[in-house]
From TrEMBL, chains A, B:
It comes from Blastococcus haudaquaticus. The keyword Repressor does not apply. One of its GO terms (biological process) is negative regulation of DNA-templated transcription. It comes from the Bacteria. Residues 17-78 form the HTH iclR-type domain. The keyword DNA-binding applies. InterPro entries: GAF-like_dom_sf, HTH_MetabolicPath_Reg, Tscrpt_reg_IclR_C, Tscrpt_reg_IclR_N, WH-like_DNA-bd_sf, WH_DNA-bd_sf. It holds the Pfam family HTH_IclR. Residues 79-258 form the IclR-ED domain. This is Transcriptional regulator, IclR family. One of its GO terms (molecular function) is DNA-binding transcription factor activity. Keywords: DNA-binding, Transcription, Transcription regulation.
DNA sequence: AGGCACAATGCCGCTCAATGGAAAACAACT
DNA sequence: AGTTGTTTTCCATTGAGCGGCATTGTGCCT
C-alpha cells in the first residue's frame, strides 16, 4: 500500500513557548559578556531551533530591536535602546539625578553610583567615574548584590520587611572574599542604616575601599533608589563623605517630588 | 430557518500584524510625552483591540518589558532597559565617551552632547549639563534634525554620499525660526565640515546659541558618532571651543580602537 | 442615588500564522 | 574533493492567538 513514499514533511512539531516569549528570549540571550552573537549562538543560547531563530530575529531586525553587522553577527538595536530610555526607573530617574551626581564626582574625584532594586539584586542605573578613579567595579546596566554593596544595603534596609526577611533567610556570602554573612549582624546593620539614613560599607578585596550610600525618596515617600560614592580605603574620610552624599540624595529626592525627604533621624 | 439564534461568538476575526510586531507596537506606543499609559490609551495608540492589548501587555509584563503601577498605568520596564543597555551604539559608546564628556563639561560649564545617526535623524545618546547651563534643548533618547544641529551636521557630512543626496533632495527648514535651508549652502557647509573635521552651528531662537561639534571614529575608520558643546552666544569663544571638542572627540575615537582618527586635515 | 460614559477584565470557538525538520546553499577548513 | 559547521530556504500541519461580546469596576454629572 505504501508504494508512495508519503512525504512526512510538514508534521507540525511540538511547540515551545508562545511567540512573544520567544522573541524576548532572543533579547535575553545577550549579556555583558555576549554583546554580539551569530545566528547559531543566538539559537543555542535561547534554546530556539535555528530556523525559528532566523525567522524571529528577522522580525526583530525589521523593527529595530536587533541589528546585524556586515559580519552577520547580531547586536541589540538602537531603536530598542530608544524606547527603553523611557523607563521611569531608568532614564527618568537618571535625568533628575545626573547633575547632582556630577557635583559629587567633582568633589570626590572617584566613583558615584546610582542604583535601584530589581528583584533580589540592585541594578546600576548610572555611574560617573573620574579618569583618575580607582579600578572600575560595576558597569551601567549591570547587577549588584544587595547584601555586600553600599547601594544594595540601603535598598535592602528600606525595602518592605517581608522582602527583607526573604533575603535574610537565605545563606549569604561576601563575594570576592567568600566569607559568610551573619544574619544577625546584617539585621543590626540594616537597623543602623534606617536610623542614620546612611550606609557605610567597607571591602578588602580586590582593593580596600569604602562606599557611603544614602536613600533617594520619590513623591510617595518610598525609597526608589540609592546613591553612593566609592573611594579607596586610604583616601577615605567617611565623616566628610556622609553629609555630601546625604545632601545630594536629598536634592535628588526633592527633584522627584518628595517633600519630607528624610536623610537624618528626626532626633 | 434561523429559529436558533446561533451564537456567532468565536468566529475568528480578521487578523492584523503578526504577534511579535504587535508586541513591539505596544512598546512603540510610548514616547517622551507619554511615559505611562492606561490600557485604553495603549490600545488606541497601538491600534490593537483592547482584549488583545491586555493579553499581550500581560506577557510583556511577565518578562519585564512593561511594568504596571498601583494606579493601573503601564510604563516601560527596567528589564527592557537592562538588555537595551547592551546596545553597542548606545551604552557601549557612552561608556567610552562619558569620562571625556565630563572633562569638557567641567571646562565649558554648559551642555555636552553625544549623538549617533539613526535613520534620517540624530539620536541623542548622552547629555551632560551643568546646573548653571542655559535651558535644556534635547533629552537623552530623543531625536534631533540632521540639518540644523551641530552634531547632526557632522553626522550628515561624514555619511555615505548616497545618503547625503537623499537628504539634500528634500526641502529642509530650520525649525524654531521656520526659515528654509538652501541646498547649495548646506552642500558648502558639509564640505567645510569634512575639510575642518569640525562643525560650528549658530541658532537665534529660542535663545542665541553656538554649537561646536566634531566626529568620532570607530575602529573601522568610519564616523559612528558626533560630540558637541552647546554654549550661549554671548558666552562663546568658538576659537577656543574647537580644539577642546576636537581633542575630546579624538580621545574617544582612540578609546574605540581607531588608530588614524582624524580631526584635522592632513595639511 | 440613579444614570451615564468609559475603563478594565473574563470568556470562548474558530482559523491561519507560526512551527521545526529536511535539504540546499555557503564557507572554511584540511 | 571531502569534511565539518553555519546560514538560509522550503513547506504541510495544527494549537496559539484572535477579537467580539458580556460583565464588572470607576468616576462624574445630574
Amino acid at each position: 500500500m505504501s508504494a508512495e513514499p508519503t512525504r512526512v514533511r510538514g508534521r507540525r512539531p511540538p511547540q515551545g513557548d508562545p511567540v512573544v516569549d520567544r522573541a524576548f528570549a532572543l533579547l535575553a540571550a545577550f549579556d555583558a559578556g555576549h554583546r554580539s552573537l551569530t545566528l547559531g549562538e543566538l539559537s543555542r543560547r535561547s534554546g530556539i531551533p535555528t530556523s525559528s531563530t532566523l525567522r524571529l530575529a528577522g522580525r526583530l531586525m525589521a523593527w529595530g530591536a536587533l541589528e546585524r553587522g556586515a559580519d552577520g553577527r547580531f547586536t541589540i538595536g538602537l531603536r530598542l535602546w530608544e524606547v527603553a530610555s523611557l523607563a521611569p526607573r531608568g532614564q527618568g530617574l537618571k535625568q533628575v539625578a545626573l547633575p547632582f551626581m556630577g557635583d559629587l564626582e567633582e568633589v570626590t574625584r572617584q566613583h558615584v553610583l546610582l542604583a535601584v532594586r530589581e528583584g533580589t539584586e540592585a541594578l546600576l542605573v548610572e555611574r560617573l567615574s573620574a579618569h583618575q578613579a580607582m579600578d572600575v567595579l560595576y558597569r551601567v546596566g549591570g547587577r549588584l548584590p544587595l547584601h555586600s554593596t553600599g547601594v544594595g544595603l540601603v535598598l535592602l534596609a528600606f525595602a518592605e520587611s517581608s522582602f527583607q526577611e526573604s533575603v535574610l533567610v537565605q545563606p549569604l556570602t561576601h563575594m570576592p572574599e567568600n566569607t559568610p554573612v551573619s544574619p544577625a549582624a546584617l539585621r543590626r546593620t540594616l537597623a543602623e542604616i534606617r536610623r542614620d539614613g546612611l550606609a557605610t560599607f567597607r571591602r578588602r578585596a580586590p582593593q580596600p575601599l569604602v562606599s557611603v550610600a544614602a536613600p533617594i525618596f520619590a513623591a510617595d515617600e518610598r525609597v526608589v533608589a540609592a546613591l553612593s560614592v566609592v573611594v579607596p580605603q586610604e583616601h577615605a574620610e567617611p565623616r566628610l563623605l556622609g553629609p555630601a552624599v546625604r545632601t545630594a540624595a536629598r536634592a535628588i529626592s526633592r527633584g522627584l517630588g518628595a517633600r519630607r525627604a528624610i536623610g537624618a533621624p528626626p532626633a
